[in-house]
Amino acid sequence: MRLTGADWLDAPATQAVLGMLEEAGHPAYAVGGCVRNALLGRPVDDVDIATRARPEEVTRLAEAAGLKAVPTGIAHGTVTVVADGTGFEVTTWRADVETDGRRAVVRFADTLAEDARRRDFTMNALYAARTGDIVDPLGGLPDLQARRLRFIEDPARRIREDYLRILRFFRFSAWYADPADGMDPDALAAIADALDGIATLSRERVGGEVMKLMAAPDPAPAVAAMQATGVLSATLPGADARALAPLVHIENTEGIPPASLRRLAATGFYDGEALRLSKADRKRLVAIAEAASDGAPPRALGYRYGADTARDALLVRAASLGASPDPGALDAAGEGATLRLPVRPRDLTPGYEGAALGARLKELEAAWIASDFRLTREELLAR
């Protein structure tokens, strides 16, 4: 099979890096996500290259070709070669010598098949030559065409090599597998037997996988499978998958783009610190939780929390009830976010100062909200 019409492969920068290696007698291939996504007709964000050339030889060839070589992962055989402002991670073929579930000791390999066997899933062990010809040493192409996610060879062994592959399995299922076909039972059994390995992973890596999973078009089947195997409670203690499918349905019905934080909130998990989310994301996640449990009407939610947080909260609230938001609720939340209390501090002075002034403003604001924002400035001041 030949990959055609792939702009990223035909790009001069990609051809320059692959060409410099091949012309020196070293086989070189684009590998992994770029090949997988191109075959699926999906966007390609970056291009990884696998080669038989050792890192020092890659560096020498790059510099001789006038390209910049950066030793970004030299201990693991990776050199980033920069061509036309684009970075390509060029990694020497490798084979695992020893693994502990988090990191691996590797040796450089002499064959493409060895390099393929240390990868996670068959659909990620696809290689594309400079000409576009596909090399498939482990039968990944039929799996990709059938949208079937399968670990390479023994699932238990692949998982023991890196326990993050448990979470990657569910993320890739959500993004690339056909949910109608179900998940590989051997993979699920191996995952259930390896749950203790999740606790050994860094929270940053776990958080990254969770957020990528939640961004999938429909993560609900994968998250439900996580719950059935015990992975969800080991990863997000207290989370529940039940509201996620209704939320995705509402999003699709209302034409609302996916949002990882909204979907995470729908599971009832709000500990962004545990996932090492950014400060802004942690704050937003807690705000969605607070707004979703706030019994205020939509306009009041928009006023208190802002349009985006209020709308997310309304969606999460509706999904938890298995219903759709009330007609006009999302628009009302947006409207509420534009409202401003018509009374200003200067309207209450002289007469109120300091803490008394703040308390009086809060009283008037509460009355204004309770009136569904109908009370005018004059009516509020008359109080």
TrEMBL record:
<keyword id="KW-0479">Metal-binding</keyword>
<keyword id="KW-0547">Nucleotide-binding</keyword>
<dbReference type="GO" id="GO:0000049">
    <property type="term" value="F:tRNA binding"/>
</dbReference>
<feature type="domain" description="Poly A polymerase head">
    <location>
        <begin position="28"/>
        <end position="150"/>
    </location>
</feature>
<dbReference type="InterPro" id="IPR032828">
    <property type="entry name" value="PolyA_RNA-bd"/>
</dbReference>
<dbReference type="GO" id="GO:0016779">
    <property type="term" value="F:nucleotidyltransferase activity"/>
</dbReference>
<keyword id="KW-0548">Nucleotidyltransferase</keyword>
<keyword id="KW-0819">tRNA processing</keyword>
<protein>
    <submittedName>
        <fullName>Poly(A) polymerase</fullName>
    </submittedName>
</protein>
<dbReference type="InterPro" id="IPR050264">
    <property type="entry name" value="Bact_CCA-adding_enz_type3_sf"/>
</dbReference>
<keyword id="KW-0694">RNA-binding</keyword>
<dbReference type="GO" id="GO:0008033">
    <property type="term" value="P:tRNA processing"/>
</dbReference>
<dbReference type="InterPro" id="IPR043519">
    <property type="entry name" value="NT_sf"/>
</dbReference>
<dbReference type="InterPro" id="IPR002646">
    <property type="entry name" value="PolA_pol_head_dom"/>
</dbReference>
<feature type="domain" description="tRNA nucleotidyltransferase/poly(A) polymerase RNA and SrmB- binding">
    <location>
        <begin position="183"/>
        <end position="240"/>
    </location>
</feature>
<comment type="similarity">
    <text>Belongs to the tRNA nucleotidyltransferase/poly(A) polymerase family.</text>
</comment>
<dbReference type="GO" id="GO:0046872">
    <property type="term" value="F:metal ion binding"/>
</dbReference>
<dbReference type="GO" id="GO:0000166">
    <property type="term" value="F:nucleotide binding"/>
</dbReference>
<keyword id="KW-0808">Transferase</keyword>
<keyword id="KW-0460">Magnesium</keyword>
<dbReference type="Pfam" id="PF12627">
    <property type="entry name" value="PolyA_pol_RNAbd"/>
</dbReference>
<dbReference type="Pfam" id="PF01743">
    <property type="entry name" value="PolyA_pol"/>
</dbReference>
